[in-house]
Design goal:
Order of helices and strands: HHEEEHEEEEEEEE
Number of strands: 11
Strand order of the largest sheet: 2-3-4-5-6-7-10-11
Helix content: under 10%
Number of domains: 1
Distance between the termini: 34 Å
Largest sheet: 8 strands, antiparallel, barrel
Radius of gyration: 18 Å
Shape: globular
Length: 231
Protein backbone atom coordinates (compact mmCIF):
# COMPACT_ATOMS: atom_id res chain seq x y z
CA UNK A 1 0.00 0.00 0.00
CA UNK A 2 1.31 3.45 -0.87
CA UNK A 3 1.95 6.06 1.76
CA UNK A 4 2.81 9.74 1.68
CA UNK A 5 6.45 10.70 1.46
CA UNK A 6 7.93 11.87 4.77
CA UNK A 7 8.60 15.55 5.11
CA UNK A 8 12.36 15.08 4.69
CA UNK A 9 11.80 13.62 1.25
CA UNK A 10 9.20 16.19 0.26
CA UNK A 11 11.47 19.00 1.30
CA UNK A 12 14.09 17.72 -1.12
CA UNK A 13 11.60 18.08 -3.97
CA UNK A 14 11.04 14.35 -4.52
CA UNK A 15 7.71 12.79 -3.51
CA UNK A 16 7.45 9.21 -2.41
CA UNK A 17 5.36 8.42 -5.49
CA UNK A 18 8.03 9.93 -7.73
CA UNK A 19 10.88 8.25 -5.91
CA UNK A 20 9.20 4.86 -5.80
CA UNK A 21 8.40 4.85 -9.47
CA UNK A 22 11.88 5.98 -10.36
CA UNK A 23 13.48 3.54 -7.96
CA UNK A 24 11.58 0.64 -9.45
CA UNK A 25 12.33 1.98 -12.89
CA UNK A 26 16.04 1.91 -12.24
CA UNK A 27 15.67 -1.67 -11.25
CA UNK A 28 14.08 -2.59 -14.50
CA UNK A 29 16.67 -0.67 -16.39
CA UNK A 30 19.21 -3.19 -15.30
CA UNK A 31 17.21 -6.27 -16.07
CA UNK A 32 18.98 -8.87 -18.14
CA UNK A 33 19.09 -12.61 -17.62
CA UNK A 34 22.01 -14.97 -17.33
CA UNK A 35 21.55 -18.66 -17.75
CA UNK A 36 23.07 -21.91 -18.94
CA UNK A 37 22.57 -24.44 -21.73
CA UNK A 38 19.84 -27.06 -21.62
CA UNK A 39 18.90 -30.14 -23.58
CA UNK A 40 17.28 -28.01 -26.25
CA UNK A 41 20.49 -26.05 -26.65
CA UNK A 42 22.60 -28.88 -28.08
CA UNK A 43 24.70 -27.68 -30.95
CA UNK A 44 24.59 -24.11 -29.67
CA UNK A 45 27.17 -22.13 -27.75
CA UNK A 46 25.57 -20.73 -24.61
CA UNK A 47 26.73 -17.20 -23.83
CA UNK A 48 26.13 -14.66 -21.07
CA UNK A 49 27.36 -16.87 -18.22
CA UNK A 50 30.39 -16.31 -16.02
CA UNK A 51 29.56 -17.70 -12.58
CA UNK A 52 30.15 -15.11 -9.86
CA UNK A 53 31.77 -12.73 -12.37
CA UNK A 54 29.88 -10.60 -14.86
CA UNK A 55 28.03 -12.61 -17.47
CA UNK A 56 26.27 -9.57 -18.90
CA UNK A 57 26.71 -5.84 -18.57
CA UNK A 58 24.27 -3.19 -19.75
CA UNK A 59 23.40 0.47 -20.09
CA UNK A 60 19.82 1.70 -20.15
CA UNK A 61 17.27 4.40 -19.60
CA UNK A 62 13.88 4.08 -17.93
CA UNK A 63 10.85 6.26 -18.53
CA UNK A 64 8.30 6.45 -15.73
CA UNK A 65 4.74 7.73 -15.71
CA UNK A 66 2.97 7.08 -12.43
CA UNK A 67 3.47 3.43 -11.52
CA UNK A 68 4.12 2.34 -15.11
CA UNK A 69 7.76 1.77 -15.98
CA UNK A 70 9.38 1.18 -19.36
CA UNK A 71 13.04 0.22 -19.65
CA UNK A 72 15.14 0.17 -22.80
CA UNK A 73 18.84 -0.21 -23.44
CA UNK A 74 21.61 -2.39 -24.76
CA UNK A 75 24.14 -4.98 -23.63
CA UNK A 76 27.68 -3.64 -23.33
CA UNK A 77 29.17 -7.05 -22.56
CA UNK A 78 28.08 -10.63 -23.29
CA UNK A 79 30.47 -13.16 -21.83
CA UNK A 80 31.42 -15.58 -24.59
CA UNK A 81 31.21 -12.98 -27.37
CA UNK A 82 33.82 -10.42 -28.36
CA UNK A 83 33.14 -6.70 -28.46
CA UNK A 84 33.42 -6.90 -32.24
CA UNK A 85 30.50 -9.34 -32.16
CA UNK A 86 28.22 -7.30 -29.94
CA UNK A 87 28.84 -4.01 -31.76
CA UNK A 88 28.65 -3.31 -35.47
CA UNK A 89 31.57 -0.87 -35.28
CA UNK A 90 34.98 -1.45 -33.78
CA UNK A 91 35.46 2.21 -32.91
CA UNK A 92 32.02 3.59 -32.04
CA UNK A 93 30.43 1.56 -29.25
CA UNK A 94 27.10 2.91 -28.07
CA UNK A 95 23.38 2.33 -28.60
CA UNK A 96 23.63 3.20 -32.29
CA UNK A 97 26.04 0.32 -32.98
CA UNK A 98 24.81 -2.19 -30.37
CA UNK A 99 23.49 -5.48 -31.76
CA UNK A 100 21.97 -6.74 -28.49
CA UNK A 101 19.19 -4.63 -27.02
CA UNK A 102 16.35 -5.07 -24.53
CA UNK A 103 12.95 -3.61 -23.76
CA UNK A 104 10.92 -4.20 -20.60
CA UNK A 105 7.95 -3.04 -18.55
CA UNK A 106 7.14 -3.21 -14.85
CA UNK A 107 4.65 -2.17 -12.19
CA UNK A 108 5.41 -0.80 -8.74
CA UNK A 109 4.22 -3.26 -6.07
CA UNK A 110 5.11 -1.77 -2.65
CA UNK A 111 7.28 0.73 -0.81
CA UNK A 112 8.88 1.31 2.58
CA UNK A 113 10.52 4.57 3.67
CA UNK A 114 12.73 5.94 6.42
CA UNK A 115 13.70 9.61 6.20
CA UNK A 116 15.23 10.03 2.72
CA UNK A 117 15.77 6.28 2.30
CA UNK A 118 13.16 4.59 0.12
CA UNK A 119 12.97 0.85 -0.54
CA UNK A 120 10.79 -0.13 -3.48
CA UNK A 121 9.57 -3.48 -4.76
CA UNK A 122 8.61 -3.98 -8.40
CA UNK A 123 7.81 -6.87 -10.71
CA UNK A 124 8.16 -6.93 -14.45
CA UNK A 125 9.26 -8.63 -17.62
CA UNK A 126 11.99 -7.91 -20.16
CA UNK A 127 12.74 -9.14 -23.66
CA UNK A 128 16.14 -9.27 -25.38
CA UNK A 129 16.70 -8.72 -29.08
CA UNK A 130 19.37 -9.21 -31.70
CA UNK A 131 18.95 -6.33 -34.11
CA UNK A 132 19.21 -7.15 -37.80
CA UNK A 133 20.49 -3.66 -38.45
CA UNK A 134 22.01 -1.61 -35.58
CA UNK A 135 20.65 1.87 -35.01
CA UNK A 136 18.77 2.02 -31.71
CA UNK A 137 18.19 5.46 -30.22
CA UNK A 138 17.25 6.59 -26.72
CA UNK A 139 15.06 9.18 -28.42
CA UNK A 140 12.92 6.28 -29.71
CA UNK A 141 12.49 3.70 -26.91
CA UNK A 142 10.75 1.13 -29.13
CA UNK A 143 13.85 1.00 -31.35
CA UNK A 144 15.36 -1.23 -28.65
CA UNK A 145 12.58 -3.77 -29.26
CA UNK A 146 13.43 -4.42 -32.90
CA UNK A 147 15.03 -7.47 -34.46
CA UNK A 148 14.93 -11.13 -33.44
CA UNK A 149 13.69 -11.82 -29.91
CA UNK A 150 16.32 -14.11 -28.40
CA UNK A 151 15.37 -14.29 -24.70
CA UNK A 152 12.98 -13.10 -21.99
CA UNK A 153 13.03 -12.81 -18.20
CA UNK A 154 10.65 -12.34 -15.31
CA UNK A 155 12.12 -10.11 -12.60
CA UNK A 156 11.53 -9.72 -8.86
CA UNK A 157 13.24 -6.48 -7.90
CA UNK A 158 14.30 -4.42 -4.91
CA UNK A 159 15.57 -0.88 -5.19
CA UNK A 160 17.22 1.09 -2.39
CA UNK A 161 17.01 4.79 -3.21
CA UNK A 162 18.55 7.69 -1.30
CA UNK A 163 17.15 11.14 -2.09
CA UNK A 164 20.17 13.41 -2.37
CA UNK A 165 18.82 16.64 -3.89
CA UNK A 166 15.56 18.08 -5.22
CA UNK A 167 14.38 15.76 -7.97
CA UNK A 168 17.50 13.59 -7.76
CA UNK A 169 18.09 10.15 -6.25
CA UNK A 170 21.02 7.75 -6.09
CA UNK A 171 20.06 4.10 -6.15
CA UNK A 172 21.29 0.53 -5.87
CA UNK A 173 19.15 -2.14 -7.46
CA UNK A 174 19.01 -5.83 -6.59
CA UNK A 175 17.10 -8.28 -8.74
CA UNK A 176 16.30 -11.99 -8.94
CA UNK A 177 15.78 -12.85 -12.59
CA UNK A 178 14.22 -15.95 -14.11
CA UNK A 179 14.67 -16.91 -17.74
CA UNK A 180 11.32 -17.64 -19.40
CA UNK A 181 12.48 -17.95 -23.01
CA UNK A 182 15.75 -18.60 -24.82
CA UNK A 183 15.94 -18.97 -28.59
CA UNK A 184 18.95 -19.67 -30.77
CA UNK A 185 20.48 -16.94 -32.89
CA UNK A 186 23.32 -16.56 -35.37
CA UNK A 187 26.34 -14.28 -35.02
CA UNK A 188 29.14 -14.48 -37.59
CA UNK A 189 27.92 -17.88 -38.77
CA UNK A 190 27.86 -19.49 -35.30
CA UNK A 191 24.65 -20.41 -33.50
CA UNK A 192 24.34 -19.21 -29.91
CA UNK A 193 21.81 -19.19 -27.10
CA UNK A 194 21.50 -16.65 -24.30
CA UNK A 195 21.09 -19.05 -21.39
CA UNK A 196 18.30 -21.54 -20.83
CA UNK A 197 14.75 -21.45 -19.57
CA UNK A 198 14.46 -21.75 -15.79
CA UNK A 199 17.93 -20.79 -14.60
CA UNK A 200 18.04 -17.79 -12.27
CA UNK A 201 20.51 -14.94 -12.10
CA UNK A 202 21.36 -11.95 -9.95
CA UNK A 203 21.30 -8.27 -10.89
CA UNK A 204 23.16 -5.39 -9.24
CA UNK A 205 22.67 -2.01 -10.90
CA UNK A 206 23.54 1.41 -9.46
CA UNK A 207 22.12 4.49 -11.12
CA UNK A 208 20.66 7.98 -10.92
CA UNK A 209 17.08 9.17 -11.35
CA UNK A 210 15.94 12.60 -12.51
CA UNK A 211 12.42 13.98 -12.15
CA UNK A 212 10.95 15.73 -15.19
CA UNK A 213 7.33 16.36 -14.16
CA UNK A 214 6.24 16.27 -10.48
CA UNK A 215 2.48 16.34 -11.01
CA UNK A 216 1.93 13.26 -13.22
CA UNK A 217 5.04 11.96 -11.82
CA UNK A 218 7.28 11.55 -14.85
CA UNK A 219 10.99 10.84 -14.84
CA UNK A 220 13.92 9.55 -16.86
CA UNK A 221 16.65 7.42 -15.32
CA UNK A 222 20.04 6.18 -16.42
CA UNK A 223 21.53 3.00 -14.99
CA UNK A 224 24.50 0.72 -15.59
CA UNK A 225 24.40 -2.82 -14.25
CA UNK A 226 25.92 -6.28 -14.26
CA UNK A 227 24.44 -9.76 -14.11
CA UNK A 228 25.99 -12.77 -12.43
CA UNK A 229 24.91 -16.40 -12.32
CA UNK A 230 26.09 -17.95 -9.04
CA UNK A 231 24.61 -21.33 -9.99
Amino acid sequence: MKQDVPSSTESSGLTRRDALARAAGLVIAGVSGVAGADAHGKGRDTVGINGAANGLELLAEVSQVGDDLTAYGYLTLVNGLSLDQIYSSGTLRDETTARFTFYGTAKVASIQTRDTLIVAIANGQVEYFLRDVPGASFDTPTSFAQGQRIAADDAALQNVLNVTAPGIGVTTVFGDLGRTAAESFLVDGTRYQLGRVGLRSRLVAPGKSRRIEPVAPTSVQTVAGNITNPD
